[in-house]
Here is the input.
Amino acid sequence: MEKIIGKIESINKGPNYCNTTILLEDKKHLNIKLELGQDVLIQMGKIFQFEIESFLREEVTQYKAISIKPIDEVGIDSDRMAELVQAFYEHAPLKISEIKKGIESFLKKISNPVLKAVTEEVYKKYINQFYLHPAATKFHHAYFGGLSYHTYSMLKMIDPMVDIYPFLNRDLLYAATILHDVSKVDEMTGVDGEYTKEGQLLGHIVMGALEIDKAAVKLGLAESEEVMLLKHLMISHHGMLNFGSPKKPQTGEALLLWYIDSIDSKFTELGVALNSIEPGEFTQSINVLDKMRFYKPNLKNDKE
Amino acid sequence: MEKIIGKIESINKGPNYCNTTILLEDKKHLNIKLELGQDVLIQMGKIFQFEIESFLREEVTQYKAISIKPIDEVGIDSDRMAELVQAFYEHAPLKISEIKKGIESFLKKISNPVLKAVTEEVYKKYINQFYLHPAATKFHHAYFGGLSYHTYSMLKMIDPMVDIYPFLNRDLLYAATILHDVSKVDEMTGVDGEYTKEGQLLGHIVMGALEIDKAAVKLGLAESEEVMLLKHLMISHHGMLNFGSPKKPQTGEALLLWYIDSIDSKFTELGVALNSIEPGEFTQSINVLDKMRFYKPNLKNDKE
Amino acid sequence: MEKIIGKIESINKGPNYCNTTILLEDKKHLNIKLELGQDVLIQMGKIFQFEIESFLREEVTQYKAISIKPIDEVGIDSDRMAELVQAFYEHAPLKISEIKKGIESFLKKISNPVLKAVTEEVYKKYINQFYLHPAATKFHHAYFGGLSYHTYSMLKMIDPMVDIYPFLNRDLLYAATILHDVSKVDEMTGVDGEYTKEGQLLGHIVMGALEIDKAAVKLGLAESEEVMLLKHLMISHHGMLNFGSPKKPQTGEALLLWYIDSIDSKFTELGVALNSIEPGEFTQSINVLDKMRFYKPNLKNDKE
Amino acid sequence: MEKIIGKIESINKGPNYCNTTILLEDKKHLNIKLELGQDVLIQMGKIFQFEIESFLREEVTQYKAISIKPIDEVGIDSDRMAELVQAFYEHAPLKISEIKKGIESFLKKISNPVLKAVTEEVYKKYINQFYLHPAATKFHHAYFGGLSYHTYSMLKMIDPMVDIYPFLNRDLLYAATILHDVSKVDEMTGVDGEYTKEGQLLGHIVMGALEIDKAAVKLGLAESEEVMLLKHLMISHHGMLNFGSPKKPQTGEALLLWYIDSIDSKFTELGVALNSIEPGEFTQSINVLDKMRFYKPNLKNDKE
Amino acid sequence: MEKIIGKIESINKGPNYCNTTILLEDKKHLNIKLELGQDVLIQMGKIFQFEIESFLREEVTQYKAISIKPIDEVGIDSDRMAELVQAFYEHAPLKISEIKKGIESFLKKISNPVLKAVTEEVYKKYINQFYLHPAATKFHHAYFGGLSYHTYSMLKMIDPMVDIYPFLNRDLLYAATILHDVSKVDEMTGVDGEYTKEGQLLGHIVMGALEIDKAAVKLGLAESEEVMLLKHLMISHHGMLNFGSPKKPQTGEALLLWYIDSIDSKFTELGVALNSIEPGEFTQSINVLDKMRFYKPNLKNDKE
Amino acid sequence: MEKIIGKIESINKGPNYCNTTILLEDKKHLNIKLELGQDVLIQMGKIFQFEIESFLREEVTQYKAISIKPIDEVGIDSDRMAELVQAFYEHAPLKISEIKKGIESFLKKISNPVLKAVTEEVYKKYINQFYLHPAATKFHHAYFGGLSYHTYSMLKMIDPMVDIYPFLNRDLLYAATILHDVSKVDEMTGVDGEYTKEGQLLGHIVMGALEIDKAAVKLGLAESEEVMLLKHLMISHHGMLNFGSPKKPQTGEALLLWYIDSIDSKFTELGVALNSIEPGEFTQSINVLDKMRFYKPNLKNDKE
Here is the structure.
């Protein structure tokens, strides 16, 4: 008897038989016989842990399921969950463990104690879902880990920009970038996701400001300049009223946060689209880029 | 020796004399002699309490100041303060005590316990400033009591509307109307007012949502449907993204709140403008009404 | 031989038979045999009066048509016609006779003799079609009686509003509200309706102004202030140039007319949409509400 | 004793003398002595008829006023009035008599009897004011005769256009062009003009449609296709809803009317602006041309 | 053996037979037997020259292909090509030879030597494609010869306009009109056409300016006022920034060029649409006319 | 006798004397006596070279001018001119020699030979004016060297961005950034500058594309993919049609060029504005930032 984890790829059922084919982490497939009625325990496209037993039929080794559990009832930790998600689904181009390491290195670089404390408090609350969640329903980064990968790419733009415009505050930018989309975890229900009721009626911008405030009240830091600035960056990060920000950016850091959010959401999508065509061709029209089609130049790049 | 309250109307000062003329509640004026140097204690247009002593000079009774205190250091209650403000400044067309009675009668009518508790909690925090504050800097209701008078007029529209459209929830409308502009108290600094730093960077819409949330957390009601709805009505009450609402109204109550807010802000201003001209004439252009000029019909009204 | 009225629900025809099934006012169905060729006299979904005769075939009572008349050639009065329309088609939530009684009570309340005379003159001309016509082709109130029901709901908002803003003229509001959409009768051809040529090229706003003018000329009142104001309210009742009003509202009454027209068109649609879902759900996107989806709160209302 | 007509250029008055200098049609000036008190009968910049008498003072011939009448109380006909207006004020580049002859030649070319009758009926009503009125308050053609000059320039574009696009109806274009701005006569009060109450609340577009309808009712032609089309061209001639047309052009003739109205209003202003600068220079910014500055090419034209 | 030219209308092919039916210039059809494999030489809807030989089968004369050549490899001149294109495809309402004669008559009328030289230089380069190319992919004039027909119609409007507004320079208008769309030849690939890479990334407006400049450099006229003006008219002929002009019209000629381009593109489409319906009807919605439907008046025109 | 260079700070002139005070490179001032009439040779605020001679008057050494030359007639090279401009006028925060070294280091990094050749060809033509010209008339970088300083800041953003989005072509970005504003040299006449005729009618975007094309034609590279891409980046670098780009960015490089141009123009202005206020304050409203006022956070930065 053996425990085995896989994603359901097909369910086959007749009047007197029932079996499923699952995808394993090593990309192999396995067919498992089920008792009649066990098929209601599984669902296409989801991950399950099976206890299986092998047996011989007509000189061929076959397997039957002893027990079946959805993966989130098995009790694995979030790192292992991240591994499984990346094994079975479309996912960010980096390993989630590397994204996490990268983001946390910026979190550690925050030297302002108020910004650090509040950012950590909110980050801790969302940490698990944050690394598995997609960034958006239909548009940019809509895959597992998309939310955190997007955040990490944005963080990488901060230092070069502050080097050119040194009047900007690095800590405030690190903190606000880490938190800016964190409430998307509650706004949408995941990759095949829909807006939640709260997401639809309040939105991640207001929900994010409420989270920052709640953490600050808890830590006794609610009246600080830092927290007010962090809330301002949160609510203004869509840049314009008609993109859902109730205030436009009114500090340099708020303005830059909008720019790097906007740049990363567009260029990541553009990269994906260009990747699927040949030089000299135009992409399909791209939603986040004003439905424009983009041309892939017929030039060699450095690395090519 | 006598205590007397008045608004400073002039300060007269020479090398060796100093006096002030003040306006009393009964619209009379009084001249008070000051010691040299006492003039730094007073300020044009503000209300002070004077201890005065009378004396005769050249057979005329005159008065000199024994002590001088700004009115907000005297220790009067908020009802008395409201009386003084209405006596000395441009103010709402109703007595503040009547506005207060009116608003509180709606507060009492809220039967849903969650809505009632949260509304009262926020209301109590702002009660004093709320009745003295103007509703806006430049546009509608910019006088003492303007904020509460505007709120009261809106409340009066709710019952007739719910009678015609009975699917609307009365309690939610009472609660949200009472609270919708309450954070203007922190957004602006009063009649001669400017935006505060927080007002400029966050705005009364987001500040109001944060206040509701804070009260709900304190009362243990943060996860209720009612509080989510109240926050939705708060953030959507400007109706459109480019008027500063991060979400558009998405419940019937939210939509009506926007309508009655919009109607009252426009019709109150219009009433003031029409009041200052004759039938058959056009008003000056009115800011809140798209800078249009309005015509005052040459017709008799019921009451005329 | 008996006269019977019904709506055609099916027409069945073979090489040597022909019959129709009709819906009766009591919601029962009746099958009537037709002579070959009589089927060209009837039309699916329309109301007809049949003279029928019963006969026995294989021991079953059957009916055959002696004569057939379209209902509008039978010579019934408009009250009876309204009853029939309400019996057979989707219709306003109130009986047309009640809507009519309600609207005429407001017409009677107009005390200004010029406004009363002109309003009655136009009203009389359109009275019959007015109570059967829908208010719009695709959007709000698109059912029999929709036009008059919409007008009645708007009239109910006038008194509460004038009570709060007493500078408004009640008579002008009653008159303009009764007439504001009256030319939709000529603009569109009914429920399954299309724009008429005149409706497409002139529109009910201009057609309405022409009707008022024609009535005023006939009554010798064309030069009065009242008629000019009524024409202004008519042409400005869409509120904004790009909604088809050649002038924006420039009197308080014109502004209110726009608001109550806009409120009723939106809230009636919203009520219908909310009625078809459960609390806690979102409606489908609603055309007249900017294609937004609305949430039905999970709260109890007074009446529930 | 002699009658003399002039425009008042100055009024000089002391404790015991009073005289006026007037401009005569031959551009000479004349000083006339007035009785004390007679100065209230005259007004700067207006035209008056004086009866004068000469007398000798210190061997110089001088004149005194026997009687004074405003020109419009003298009883001259409209042709003579047009001459005077062109003599004394800024005016159209053509003689009003020529403009009139030109416009009436197009009126005569209308062969459709309905269009001809209705156009003549409205034209007759406005004929006098039409030839003296400016076309606009601030923008294009704001001088005496501007309205008719603008109409005449537009008429000249019709034939070439119909030659290229022969599906257009010439008669409808002549008729609608002649009438399109006729109600400006009632919309504004003349050159130093302001909007009238009716002009402000209804506008020349709606007023024009009402005039056409009134004429058609009077002539028993109200139900004709021609009158409906004429009303459509009238109300759509501003081309777009947000320029005040309640309907957009929906026939070829309506579309062309908008184009030639728009072209003439812009090119006439442009011609005036270019006329005041040298080749190689830019004009001041021009209101009707989106506040753009225009360049005068350094090229020779045919006629130069 | 005979040479014959036709458009392929069908290709029929079995295991052991192959033939094609072609359309001839006289609208007759001809069936030609092909060798197995010859069918790869032809293409549906294109024009070919066949050498054919007749033979008798079952007493019927039949034809077989000896050789097959695409028409553009046959070596015919551009006039003959134009004839063929007009014979076989949807085409402009005038013969291409007449359009050409018309356009060249305007080219000859240019008296300014710089404008004439540059215009001829560019014109010569594009002359052949220019007369066969459609004016647009989806919208106006999308048929063979559409580009040149559109240009010719515009040219016809210039003289009447300059007669009314004589400050405009005739030569500049002739030159710019002839050249304004010439680069559409390189922007799109013909009637069934798509944008070329250059067309998509640069557009005919910029490409046209580059062509003018190149010709002027070659002729040593690059620094002249005329060439700068011609480039300005080229880049501003879409009239507004958001229609793709990097500068708005800033000379009278540039403004007129925009107007006549806009008028011809709309009225030509309108004429086509009205032509396909009866008086008293509305057209389908027309793309270049804001998707409006247009009404065809029930009036007689001159020529009818 | 000595040659001395200075900027004219005052000119003093009486009936029989004339002298000027000049500012020297070491910030000292010097008064020079002039012959009567020599004052017409100099101009306030401009730089001149004086030959002077000293003499004693009343025991004080004084100086008189022997000859006077405008600095651009003296024959100094462009490096020395840059030094003088930076000494006497408001200028970029870096030495022009450093900006030049920086920009040329990027020019050298271009490895694609076509891009390198064309970029160098255009660069060489503009090199002198490029380093002294301001970037804009009223808005960003309006000081000597502003154009090149802006270009240099943009170049510094390219490498970090390409590191994050490696599908972008570095060479194309270097080349297009160096050239993107080069035609501003011909579009405007310098710091106190106005638009030139060509600048007004064509604009630096089109002028830039023409320059690239001219250089490419000269080098025989006009048909290359690189040159087409470079022209596309040039014409699309304002990002949107209504900012004057006739095409929107349609390659990743074009999109990034727009972003870094936009970022640098905004953040440089913001830095200047924040520099002039204290932490905790708001700036004046800033033109290039939508006329918003920005808040300077009350936080310590790294370097402080």
Q: What stands out?
A: Chain C touches chain D through 27 residues (CB under 8 Å). The two ends of chain C are 50 Å apart (CA to CA). The longest strand of chain C covers residues 2-14. Strands of chain C lie at 2-14, 17-23, 29-33, 47-57, 60-70.
